[in-house]
Each structure stands twice: as C-alpha cells, then as structure tokens.
Write a structure and sequence with these properties.
A hairpin with a 6-residue loop joins strand 3 and strand 4. This protein has a five-stranded antiparallel sheet with strand order 4-3-2-1-5. It is globular and about 50 Å long. The chain is an alpha+beta fold. Helix content is 47%, strand content 15%.
C-alpha cells in the first residue's frame, strides 16, 4: 500500500475539496487499536485541531475527506483567498444578520499572539488572568505546541506563566555567550 508508506511531514500544508487550508501537526497512533492518525489544524475559522485516520486523510476520489498536498508557493495564495473571503463574509454579515456564524479572536489572545517575547506573554497573562477563556488557552497551547494543562482556567493561566518563565530562562541562557 503506497499510501501507508507515505511519510507525513509535520508543517506541510493540505487543502480540502472546498480549498480550505490545513497544516499537518504530526502523525500519531491510537493507543487502543494502534491505528495510524494524522493530527492537523485548520488555518481558517477558529483554527481547530483535528485527528483523522491516516487512510481517510489520504483517500482519493469521492470520499468525504479528501486532502491534497499544497506547495509552499500555493499556501500564500490560498491563505490570501481565505482572508479575502472572511473579510467579504464579514461585510455581508453586517448587512444580513442571518449569515453564517463569525469567529472572533479575543483581545487577550490577540495581544498574546502579537507579543514578541516570553516576558511580554507572561505579563499579558498576568494582567488578564480573569479575562482568559478556555478557548483562548486552547489556542495558546496550540501556538506554543504544548499539551494543555488540567484544571480551572485560572490555574491553567498560572501554569502557563510558569512554563513561559522556564522557557525564557532556558532559552535566554542558551543564547548567552
């Protein structure tokens, strides 16, 4: 089976039948049945992370899930098209309130994503402990490429602040001469 021998490259890009863009995060195996899985993230909407059986991900034809690899040159074109569609859709929804659901990125998450250093990220988390939703935390975990912490949101924020402090300490000392 040629498909099963195909090597998944994390960070490679794929599009679905609707030309929605996705990025491969990694390959995984189901703990119970050892089935091969593809873990991937939508690069549109709410940027959800999904898993799908390897065979289904790479199936061809009229399957419900049919993904096609996208070259690096095409990624920016598809992303630009998606951004244009989101802007156009946003304008249409302002005119027609019955249009499809719009996704909103919170101010805290936007500040966190724009922060240039671990120190800035820690300050944003510290200053906004009470305003961070579970959805914001899940997005932060995905961006930092770490597993989520358990517990209430406030506890998770504290753990994330400590994690960023550790990263800042070790990354900073590794770069010093």
């Amino acid at each position: 089976m040629a498909d099963e021998e195909k090597k998944i490259l994390s960070t490679s890009f794929y599009k679905d039948k609707k030309n929605n863009l996705y990025q491969i995060i990694c390959e995984a195996y189901d703990l119970e049945n050892k089935e091969r899985k593809v873990i991937y993230q939508a690069l549109y909407g709410d940027f959800s992370i999904y898993s799908l059986d390897y065979k289904k991900f790479f199936s061809k034809g009229e399957e419900e899930y049919c993904f096609e690899k996208v070259s690096n040159e095409d990624v920016s074109l598809i992303a630009a098209r998606q951004k244009y569609e989101v802007v156009a859709e946003g304008k249409a929804s302002a005119v027609n309130s019955t249009s499809s659901k719009q996704y909103h990125i919170s101010n805290v998450l936007e500040l966190f994503l724009d922060a240039r250093s671990y120190s800035e990220k820690r300050k944003i988390l510290s200053d906004n402990k009470d305003n961070i939703s579970q959805s914001d935390l899940d997005s932060m975990y995905a961006v930092l490429e770490i597993a989520s912490f358990e517990g209430e949101a406030k506890y998770q924020v504290e753990k994330l602040i400590r994690y960023l402090g550790m990263q800042e300490h070790y990354e900073g000392s590794r770069l010093r001469r």
